[in-house]
Design brief:
Largest sheet: 8 strands, mixed
Shape: globular
Helix content: 25-40%
Length: about 625
C-alpha cells in the first residue's frame, strides 16, 4: 500500500489530483474556511425527533451557513474528460453517505489527504441507535487514526479530557465496567457481581452521540469536506461507477465518482450487490430494545458494589441474566440525580425472552418487573428518547465491494452495543477504509478488485463480533461461566490495546518507508489485525470452544468455567498479579503500584512479545508518544 504523506494543513491542491471544487448550479457547500469555528452545542432542551416527555439536547449541533454558489468549474470523475453538462450536479471524487461518527471521521481523513469528498446526511443518522461507550482498545484505534492520517483532533475521542467542554458536559468519563448478575424473582446476590476499574491513560468515555457526531461533522468540514447546504438527506442514488448522482430531499443533487455507503438501514448501494439477499442474519441473533431515560435510580443504592468496588454509576453497568443483558450508560457529570440522563440498551435471546407486547416500552416494563432490583431502579424513569425495538437486530452484508462503491459499517453490519462493539467496529472500519481509499486515489485504481481486501477485512470483523457475542449470550446461563468469560474478554481487550499501541509506535518510528504500516494489514485471528502474542488468540479460541460445548449441552457451565479459570492460572503470559484465574477475586483495580509490579514481572518472566507491550521502554517512544 503506497505511503501517503500529509502536509501541515489540509491541502487544496495535491500533485496528481484535481483541486477540490466549489459548488455550482447544484447543492451548495460549506467550505473549510467558513466553518473553522469552535464547537457550538445545541441549545439545552431542544427536542429531538421521537423524544419523549422530558427534553434532552438536540440531535446535532448548530450547522454553519453555506456560502453562495459560484461558477468555478467542478471536479470531473477520475478518467472522465467530458465537461459537465449545464445544470448537472457538482461532482466529487468520493461521496460518503451517512453523516454520523463513522462517516464524519472518514470524510475528515479523506479531505485531510487532499481527496475531494462530499459528506451527505442519511435519513437514518439521527434515528438509528448507536454505540455510546469505549474501552481502552477503542481509544487506541482512535489514536491510530489521529497519528496515521494526520487528523490529531480524532485523538480526543480516545482522550476524554481533550474533547470540547460542551461535548464533555453531555457525555461523561467511564471509570469502570461492571457486571451484575440477576435472576428472575430474586434480588442480586452480593457475590455475583464483577467490576473492572482500569485507570486508563486515555480516560474512557460515555459518548452522547448527538453532540459527538455533530462535533465530528464540523471537524470534517473544517478539513475541507463538502456538505450540501442545509444538510438535506439523500433520497436515492442513480448512475454508475465514475458518474453517480445522489438525489437530496430538497430537490437538489450531488455527483461523485465513487460512493462509500455508511447510511444505515435501507442502504441504497446494497441493492446493487447482486440478486442474492444483501444481508444475512448473524448467529448471535437477539432482539434489541433501546431508549434514553431520566430518573433511573442509581443501582448502588440497591446493589452494594462491595468493599473493592466503586459506584456503578461511575461507569458502564451491564445487568446480566440468563438469555440477555441490560446495558446502562449514564451521561454527564451529575449521574445520580432525578434529572440525570441514562442510555438503556437491552439485548434478549428471543427463544428465552419472546416478544410480549407490540410496544418496546411495554416489553421492557414486563421484563424488569421480573427482577426486583431492576423494577425498583426503573420505577420512576421517564422516556426522553423514545423506545425502539428490533427483532432480529444483528445482521451482516454478504458482500461489500461493487463497481464504483463500497458498503461499510452500519450499512453492512449491525452488532450489539455491549462490550463497546459498535463504536470499536466503527473506528476499525474507518481506519481500514481510509487506507484503501487514499491508496486508490494515489494510484488511480478504483476497481472492484482494489477493494476486495477491505471487504474481507470487514467480513472478518463481523465474524469475530458475532462469535464474541454468541459466546457471551451462552455465558449468561450461569454466573460462574459469565465470571470466567468476562476475565478472558478483559484480558483480550487490554492486550489488544497494548499490542496495537506497540505496532503503531513501531510504524511511527520508521516514517517514509513504503511498508510502514504493513504490520497493521494482516488478519491474525480473534478479531486482531496487528502483531499480538499468539497465546491470546489461542486462549480466546479455547474459551469459545468450551462455551460452544455448553451451548450444545455437551458440557456443564460450571465445568467449562473451571477449565477457563484453570487456563488463566497456568498461562505464562497472564501477569499473576491480575488474579484472573481466581473466581473469588471479582474486583480489578489497577493501581500505580500494581503497574510497577507488572512491569517488573514482564521484564523478568513474560514471553518476549508480552514484554514488548508491557514494559515502558518498549511501549513508549518519546518522539511519538504524548
Amino acid at each position: 500500500m503506497p505511503h501517503h504523506t500529509h502536509p501541515e494543513r489540509p491541502p487544496t491542491d495535491v500533485p496528481g489530483r484535481p483541486a477540490g471544487p466549489h459548488w455550482a448550479e447544484g447543492a451548495e457547500s460549506v467550505t473549510a474556511a467558513e466553518s473553522a469555528l469552535p464547537y457550538e452545542p445545541p441549545a439545552e432542551g431542544t427536542p429531538t425527533a421521537g423524544a419523549g416527555p422530558a427534553p434532552e439536547p438536540a440531535a446535532g449541533a448548530a450547522r454553519a451557513a453555506a456560502p453562495a454558489a459560484d461558477s468555478t468549474p467542478p471536479l470531473e470523475s477520475p478518467g472522465d474528460s467530458a465537461p459537465r453538462r449545464p445544470g448537472s450536479p457538482a461532482r466529487h471524487t468520493v461521496a460518503v453517505l451517512g453523516a454520523h461518527l463513522g462517516g464524519g471521521m472518514l470524510a475528515a481523513i479523506l479531505a485531510r489527504a487532499g481527496i475531494d469528498v462530499v459528506l451527505v446526511d442519511s435519513p437514518h443518522d439521527a434515528t438509528t441507535p448507536a454505540g455510546e461507550t469505549t474501552v481502552p482498545y477503542t481509544a487506541e484505534v482512535f489514536e491510530l487514526l489521529a497519528r496515521r492520517y494526520g487528523v490529531p483532533e480524532l485523538s480526543a475521542l480516545g482522550h476524554f479530557g481533550q474533547l470540547p467542554a460542551e461535548v464533555r458536559r453531555t457525555s461523561g468519563v467511564k471509570s469502570s465496567i461492571g457486571f451484575v448478575y440477576a435472576r428472575p424473582g430474586a434480588p442480586v446476590r452480593p457475590h455475583q457481581v464483577v467490576q473492572f476499574n482500569v485507570p486508563s491513560e486515555h480516560g474512557e468515555s460515555h459518548l452522547y452521540r448527538p453532540d459527538v457526531d455533530a462535533w465530528v461533522h464540523q471537524l470534517a468540514v473544517r478539513y475541507g469536506a463538502k456538505v450540501p447546504q442545509g444538510r438535506p438527506a439523500f433520497t436515492e442514488v442513480h448512475g454508475e461507477a465514475g458518474d453517480f448522482t445522489i438525489e437530496l430531499t430538497d430537490g437538489s443533487s450531488v455527483g461523485a465518482a465513487f460512493v462509500v455507503d455508511m447510511s444505515g438501514p435501507d442502504a441504497p448501494m446494497l441493492r446493487r450487490l447482486g440478486p442474492d439477499p444483501a444481508l444475512r442474519p448473524l448467529r448471535h441473533s437477539s432482539r434489541v430494545l433501546t431508549a434514553h431515560l431520566r430518573g433511573v435510580r442509581p443501582l448502588e443504592r440497591r446493589v452494594d458494589p462491595g468493599k473493592g468496588g466503586t459506584p456503578w454509576t461511575g461507569g458502564t453497568t451491564q445487568v446480566v441474566f440468563p438469555g440477555g443483558w441490560i446495558q446502562l450508560v449514564p451521561f454527564g457529570d451529575q449521574r445520580t440525580g432525578e434529572t440525570s440522563l441514562t442510555s438503556v440498551a437491552v439485548s434478549l435471546d428471543a427463544k428465552i425472552w419472546p416478544q410480549r407486547s407490540a410496544s418496546p416500552e411495554d416489553d421492557f416494563q414486563q421484563l424488569v418487573r421480573q427482577f426486583p432490583d431492576l423494577e425498583w431502579q426503573f420505577a420512576h424513569a421517564t422516556t426522553v428518547r423514545a423506545w425502539t425495538g428490533s427483532e432480529p437486530w444483528q445482521y451482516g452484508a454478504n458482500a461489500a465491494a461493487g463497481d464504483g462503491f463500497v458498503v461499510l459499517e452500519r450499512s453492512a453490519v449491525r452488532c450489539d452495543f455491549t462490550l463497546s462493539r459498535d463504536v470499536t467496529l466503527t473506528a476499525e472500519l474507518v481506519h481500514e477504509a481510509a487506507a484503501h481509499l487514499i491508496s486508490a486515489a494515489d494510484s488511480g485504481d478504483w476497481s472492484v478488485e482494489r477493494f476486495r481486501p477491505l471487504e474481507a477485512f470487514q467480513a472478518s470483523l463481523i465474524e469475530h463480533g458475532d462469535r464474541l457475542l454468541r459466546t457471551a449470550l451462552t455465558a449468561t446461563t450461569d454466573f460462574r461461566l459469565w465470571n470466567a468469560f468476562c476475565r478472558v474478554w478483559l484480558l483480550h481487550s487490554m492486550f489488544a490495546a497494548l499490542s496495537l499501541k506497540r505496532a503503531r509506535n513501531d510504524a511511527l518510528a520508521a516514517p517514509g518507508r513504503p511498508d510502514q504500516w504493513r504490520e497493521l494489514e494482516r488478519h491474525r485471528g480473534a478479531g486482531l489485525w496487528f502483531p499480538v502474542y499468539p497465546g491470546f488468540v489461542a486462549l480466546f479460541d479455547d474459551m469459545d470452544q468450551l462455551v460452544r460445548r455448553v451451548a450444545d449441552n455437551r458440557l456443564a457451565p460450571g465445568a467449562a468455567a473451571e477449565r477457563i479459570f484453570g487456563q488463566l492460572r497456568k498461562a505464562s503470559f497472564v501477569p499473576p498479579l491480575f488474579a484472573f484465574g481466581d473466581p473469588t477475586d471479582r474486583y480489578y483495580n489497577f493501581t500505580p503500584l500494581k503497574r510497577v509490579k507488572v512491569m517488573l514481572w514482564a521484564k523478568r518472566r513474560a514471553p518476549y512479545m508480552v514484554q514488548r507491550v508491557l514494559t515502558r521502554g518498549a511501549t513508549v517512544l518519546p518522539d511519538v508518544e504524548r
